[in-house]
Design goal:
Length: 676
């Protein structure tokens, strides 16, 4: 016992344990004491949702965690708190916020007390539209948030996300997603903020400010990881992870600026992407991560691979002859952290063979350690479990509701049918009228009953119960379980029909998943998913029997309001021509149903504006607004113009513009004035 006490006292005197020294001094001292394997361990991030065991009201480290720490010296964990069908973590066997905080403390305590140097863990968590964990606040997905055009809403969301991640013991938040979406067939459009670099950059910077602005000393600052570098949202054919076609001018004018804007706002981590540019996999590009990010932009953070994307240099892009060579290529490109950990797990052998130098390992490891010291984890590695009760609070719920209200985008309002009176009878119909998970988008955890407001629950809050009839009518994709006849009968008895159609990114326990977590679209899947990572589309039309449902209801002659719940801009040509009113609410989050009802009944004036153009036909793609000259010309069969252009959106207010004046006010400066 006396010898152990002396050892502990001696360890506390080590310079890297001394908070009075500078971060640089502490990092250099720690690196000098680490073995090669310990350094590489800090550069490996493993999948962690099975690293804990729940024992009643306690959480303890699992044996698999202890084994991986002992064998791999792992320094970063990913998705410890994640719950979804891929991880097989549910409300019954996953972590609520209090247990999550206990789990983080338990894992942290183990490495602090049971490893040679006591280096704290980094816990990285998915948080593109809220922390992907049980009990957290679910915000609109990126596309919906961008439709608010409100940096205030984005910053408020960032504050909540950062606080909820940190209260539970997490440190790194994956997001915001800054990919420009130019092909709506791509499965991850919902995560992006649309097609415009300025809107994407401004909204991303606002989120970054909410997440702490890069000041890691703040108690609720997260180390935000920007996704995905670069041009990931413009892959050929809308195929997730395929090659992207973008020239240097396009990269400089459009794709790089949003990332630069958010880095300047404080981002300290960048994630690579699965795609390639000009035959070079993003995760192997020295031009991107060393020359551009660090030398030109002065980036002071670290680069993390997307999950197994370093392995993909070898396995899918086929430009490396082995996983080890792929790891070397990524390291020398400037990638510091291997999400998945397999490729970097072979770096120690590469150093011993002389294929890569230990000094290169030191640089990457030093970048990771620097951020751990800056966040204060060596001195304060644990969180207050009791404070986790603030996760998912009413105050946070109100911020989600505000964002959801601001995103609802009115596309058509014939004869001013909206807003609706509160003394009418309505038939609420459609696959997205009362489907909890279809409101939320991909990267969402399981939700308890009653937490998520659907369109039906929102409408019922506005009208007497007897005035609302609900019939699902059909599913998003499934054609076997439909009752269109019942929907028609309900419509005939109503004054107005509200039909909620669109898509779904709701994962279920029957869907198959790839190793990366992307869903697999195959014939065996009975999921209603038509969007979300891995669910690329060849068309943009409604699937299943949704179109039949719309047309059949229209034939009743009743006024019809169509609401699209969607992760991508779907083909709305029929609705634009036949519905009395047309809205899109994207994936609006847990408060979306209430927000939509608030707009339908006039308690909120719709203010959403499209962050991405809505094509009139897939043959127009790509149809983004800021193409370089010459401008597109019409096709033989149809116009080249989109059905609804970027920035479009109506409100209940009538207004006009007049007296436009543009005056030069200096070099490259103009003063614009007009009367509204």
């Amino acid at each position: 016992m006396a010898m152990m006490a002396l050892a502990v006292v001696g360890q506390k005197k080590l310079p890297y344990k001394d908070p009075s020294l500078s971060v640089e001094e502490r990092v250099n001292d720690l690196l000098s004491r680490m073995t090669l394997e310990e350094k590489i361990g800090q550069m490996r991030c493993t999948l962690a949702w099975n690293y804990y065991e729940i024992d009643g009201n306690k959480v303890v480290p699992a044996e698999s965690f202890k084994k991986d720490i002992a064998e791999g010296n792992i320094g970063m964990l990913w998705a410890t708190y994640r719950a979804d069908p891929w991880t097989q973590k549910s409300l019954s066997n996953g972590l609520n916020p209090e247990l999550a905080a206990k789990a983080g403390n338990a894992l942290q305590r183990y490495v602090m007390e049971q490893t040679r140097l006591g280096i704290p863990l980094f816990l990285a968590e998915e948080a593109p539209h809220g922390h992907m964990a049980i009990g957290t606040t679910v915000f609109p997905t990126g596309l919906g948030l961008a439709a608010t055009w409100s940096t205030e809403a984005a910053e408020a969301m960032g504050r909540v996300v950062g606080k909820e991640v940190r209260l539970q013991g997490g440190h790194i938040s994956y997001g915001p997603v800054l990919d420009l979406s130019r092909d709506p067939r791509w499965s991850r459009v919902e995560e992006s903020m649309g097609e415009d670099p300025v809107l994407t950059g401004e909204m991303g910077a606002a989120l970054m400010r909410g997440l702490g602005g890069g000041d890691l000393s703040k108690p609720y600052s997260t180390l935000a990881t920007l996704k995905h570098f670069i041009a990931y949202g413009t892959t050929e054919g809308g195929q997730n992870g395929n090659q992207s076609i973008a020239g240097q001018r396009d990269l400089l004018q459009n794709f790089f600026p949003p990332f630069k804007k958010v880095i300047d706002a404080g981002a300290l981590s960048i994630m690579t992407s699965y795609n390639s540019l000009d035959g070079i996999p993003s995760s192997a590009s020295r031009d991107l991560y060393t020359d551009l990010l660090r030398r030109q932009w002065g980036f002071k953070g670290f680069v993390v691979s997307d999950l197994y994307s370093i392995d993909g240099i070898w396995e899918t892009h086929h430009v490396a002859k082995s996983r080890q060579e792929a790891g070397i290529m990524a390291l020398q490109a400037g990638v510091d952290e291997d999400l998945g950990g397999k490729a970097f797990g072979e770096l120690a052998d590469a150093v011993r063979k002389g294929l890569v130098s230990e000094s290169e390992i030191d640089v990457a490891c030093g970048r990771i350690l620097t951020k751990k010291f800056e966040m204060g984890l060596f001195d304060h590695p644990y969180v207050d479990v009791k404070a986790a009760k603030e996760v998912g609070s009413k105050a946070h719920e109100a911020i989600a509701l505000d964002a959801a209200r601001k995103l609802v985008t009115l596309l058509k309002n014939q004869n001013h049918i909206l807003p609706l009176r509160k003394d009418i009878r309505v038939a609420v119909i459609g696959p997205n009228a009362d489907n909890v998970y279809n409101m939320l988008g991909d990267y969402t955890s399981p939700q308890p009953d009653g937490k998520v407001k659907t369109i039906l629950t929102g409408i019922r809050s506005k009208l007497p119960e007897a005035n609302v009839t609900y019939v699902k009518g059909c599913a998003v994709r499934d054609t076997a379980h439909c009752d269109i006849a019942a929907a028609v009968e309900a419509a005939r008895q109503a004054d107005v029909v509200i039909v909620a159609v669109g898509g779904s990114s709701a994962r279920d326990f029957k869907t198959s998943y790839k190793a990366t977590g992307a869903a697999e679209a195959d014939i065996r899947s009975v999921s209603d998913m038509d969007c979300g990572e891995g669910y690329d589309r060849a068309t943009l039309s409604l699937l299943g029997r949704q179109q039949e449902l719309l047309e059949t209801l229209h034939r009743t002659g009743k006024p019809m309001v169509v609401v699209y719940i969607e992760g991508r801009p779907m083909d709305k040509s029929w609705a634009a021509g036949h519905a009395d009113a047309l809205l899109t609410a994207y994936y609006p989050g847990q408060e979306g149903g209430q927000a939509i009802a608030d707009v339908l009944f006039g308690d909120v004036n719709p203010a959403g504006r499209l962050p991405i153009s809505v094509p009139a036909h897939i043959g127009q793609l790509p149809v983004y607004y800021n193409k370089r000259a010459p401008l597109p010309h019409n096709y033989v069969e149809m116009t080249a113009k989109p059905l609804y252009a970027f920035g479009y959106g109506l409100s209940y207010t009538t207004f006009g513009y007049a007296n436009l004046q543009i005056k030069k006010a200096g070099k490259n400066l103009f003063k614009v004035s007009l009367d509204v």
